[in-house]
Design goal:
The chain has 22 helices and 16 strands. The protein has helices spanning about 35-60, 65-75, 80-90, 95-115, 115-120, 120-135, 160-165, 185-190, 225-245, 270-275, 300-310, 350-355, 355-375, 390-400, 415, 420-425, 435-440, 460-475, 490-495, 510-520, 520-535, 540-545, and strands spanning about 1-5, 5-10, 15-20, 150-155, 170-175, 195-200, 210-215, 220-225, 260-265, 280-285, 320, 375-380, 405-410, 430, 480, 500-505. It is globular, with a radius of gyration of 25 Å. It folds into 3 domains: about 1-20 and about 145-235, Phosphohistidine domain (Glucose Oxidase, domain 1), CATH 3.50.30.10; about 35-135, PtsI, HPr-binding domain (Enzyme I, Chain A, domain 2), CATH 1.10.274; about 260-520, Phosphoenolpyruvate-binding domains (TIM Barrel). It is α/β, with parallel strands linked by helices. The strands form 2 sheets. Strands 1-8-7-3-4-5-6-2 form an 8-stranded mixed sheet. Magnesium ion (MG) binds near residues 383, 411, 432, 434 and 435.
Length: about 550
């Protein structure tokens, strides 16, 4: 038995055999063709048909949003213009593989040049090209491997396209070499309750069929477990099942101290499932997700309709909506038009909205109209706010346009350092621990090589949260957390101990966090927070908090 360590996502545990996702294919070499042109063209045509048929079949199985993406990919594989491009290159002496690679690449560049929606299809085209080349080589297509029996998926990282089809009956857990706790894989794993350990450098050495235990709570992978390890894993699984089926109550500590548990949502259609899982409202509605594909700003009417649908799902409940957070990992063509060397440090969030104030005014107007049309308690907040001056700008504009409660997200360390001034002008603060961690540790949250820095347990992050909690308490203003940190049950307790008043998370995490809060008193939460604050590394903070009874 050996153990390898990574960053755990969630609290789940799973046991099963490893199945590795194939590495992306190497680029086909430029070499003279050995078969005659007609034979080569026929081989390519057969591969194109086979890939198109496979994608069409997957589309049928997938349903929903994924179906349209896969159907479009099936059509790409049979696009006459592309086939012509491949044939021309074969006539010029190219191998079939290279001709496919070059023809798709030329088409891809053209799509990127068109920008907007077409540019977003470029990655889908590369995936089709890889599938055809794999077919010609007789190797497995890139993407999630297929198996009739359940398995633990080991991959370098997962692309959104890989995850669209992830079969939860088969995939017991995810282990990735790259990715941090806020990577796409981690967010997906949390939202679908799949145990995951990310950032496991040596995961590539696990061979297919090896039995492992993936324990997300400790971030460990036990290779070839002993009978005692297997028994312990089974006991934990039973405990977790008990938590998942426990009655739904409002979030509260063991001594009755209320900690409302809210949901992070990206679409109004996600509201129903959140309510069923016991969300007491919404703590973060990411409005930019509604408009990621748009090249022009959405109209007031379009926005009013979406916001009214959302608010109607929460009568009398709190719903915190975030103004468009465009830029960096979520660019919106109509807000981010400049080329930037470091977009995470650029004109993003409130900065981009302030530069195009008409768009912000329209969004706030649409929100105020939805507020008037429903009985939900709408709160509106701005993303990426740097200081009290920016907070005041946003809050006063929101009030001018009829928003009753307006606040800011704490994602930039400068805002936390100015917490007393900020809470003086803002109705509330919501801490976005994903970005707050990225900026405090100066580590790109999307970059696998620095994933180990993206850890909200770092005492530097906890100390900033304490500044916000203290300032909120002194000013009598609520301070919530809506980053991924709120979904980590042990950290959720520490956050409450630091003065956080509400926790917002992916709905799938609500049961675990609710259970952990229910077995901890405020006195214990405060003691755990104090112990974590005294440490100097994330790992030490975790164990210091865990060692307080
Ligand atoms: C955050 O930064 O923690 C946050 C909640 O916002 P997002 O993940 O959308 O950047
Ligand atoms: Mg953020």
């Amino acid at each position: 038995m050996t153990q390898i360590q990574g960053i755990g996502v969630g609290r789940g545990i799973a046991t099963g055999p490893v199945l590795t996702m194939p590495e992306p294919l190497s680029e086909p070499v430029v070499a003279p063709r050995t078969r005659d042109a007609a034979d080569e063209k026929q081989l390519v045509l057969d591969a194109l048909h086979a890939v198109a048929a496979d994608l069409a079949e997957r589309a049928k199985l997938a349903g929903g949003d994924a179906q349209a993406v896969l159907e479009a990919q099936a059509m790409m594989a049979q696009d006459p213009g592309l086939i012509e491009g491949v044939d021309e290159r074969i006539d010029e002496g190219s191998t079939g593989e290279r001709a496919v690679f070059d023809a798709f690449e030329a088409y891809r560049e053209m799509l990127v040049g068109l920008g907007g929606y077409m540019a977003e299809r470029a990655a889908d085209l590369s995936d089709v090209s890889q599938r055809i080349v794999a077919h010609l080589r007789g190797v497995p297509a890139p993407g999630v491997p297929e198996s009739d029996t359940p398995f633990i998926l080991v991959a370098r990282d997962l692309a959104p396209a890989d995850t669209a089809l992830l079969d939860l009956e088969r995939v017991l857990a995810l282990v990735t070499v790259e990715g941090g706790p806020t990577s796409h894989t981690a967010i997906l794993a949390r939202s679908r309750s799949i145990p995951a350990v990310v950032g496991v450098e040596s995961a590539g050495s696990l061979s297919d069929g090896t039995v492992v235990i993936v324990d997300a709570a400790s971030g460990t992978i036990t290779v070839e477990p002993t009978a005692a390890d297997l028994d312990a894993a089974e006991t934990r699984t039973a405990e977790l099942q008990k938590i998942a089926s426990a009655p739904i109550t409002d979030g509260a500590l063991a001594d009755g101290h209320a900690v409302p548990l809210l949901a992070n949502l990206g679409k109004p259609s996600e509201a129903k499932a959140a309510v069923e899982l016991g969300a007491e409202g919404v703590g973060l509605f990411r409005t930019e997700f509604l408009f990621l594909g748009s090249t022009s700003a959405p109209t007031v009417a379009q926005q009013r309709e979406a916001y009214t649908e959302l608010l109607s799902a929460f009568p009398g409940k709190k719903v915190v909506v975030r103004a468009l957070d465009a830029g960096s990992d979520k660019p919106l063509a109509f807000l981010n038009d400049a080329e930037e060397e470091n977009p995470a440090l650029g004109l993003r969030g409130l900065r981009a909205l302030r530069a195009k104030e008409d768009i912000l005014r329209e969004q706030l107007t649409a929100l105020a109209e939805a507020q008037a049309a429903t009985s939900a308690d709408l709160w509106v907040m701005a993303p990426m706010v740097a200081d009290a001056e920016e907070a005041e700008y946003f809050v006063s504009l929101a009030k001018e346009l009829g928003i009753r409660v307006a606040g800011v997200m704490a994602e930039v360390p400068s805002l936390a350092l100015m917490a007393p001034e900020v809470t003086a002008v803002s109705d509330f603060v919501s801490i976005g621990t994903n970005d707050l961690t990225q900026y405090t540790l100066a580590a790109d949250r999307l970059l696998g090589s620095v994933a180990n820095y993206q850890d909200p347990w770092h005492p530097a992050v906890l100390r900033l949260i304490k500044l916000l909690g203290d300032a909120g308490r002194a000013a009598g203003k609520p301070v919530g957390v809506c980053g991924e940190a709120a979904a980590d049950p042990a950290l959720a307790v520490v956050l409450v101990g630091l003065g956080v008043t509400t926790l917002s998370m992916t709905p799938a995490a609500l049961a675990d966090v609710r259970a952990e809060l229910a077995r901890t008193t405020l006195e214990q939460a405060t003691a755990r927070a104090a112990a974590a604050l005294r440490t100097s590394t994330a790992a030490a903070a975790r164990s210091a908090a865990a060692s307080v009874d």
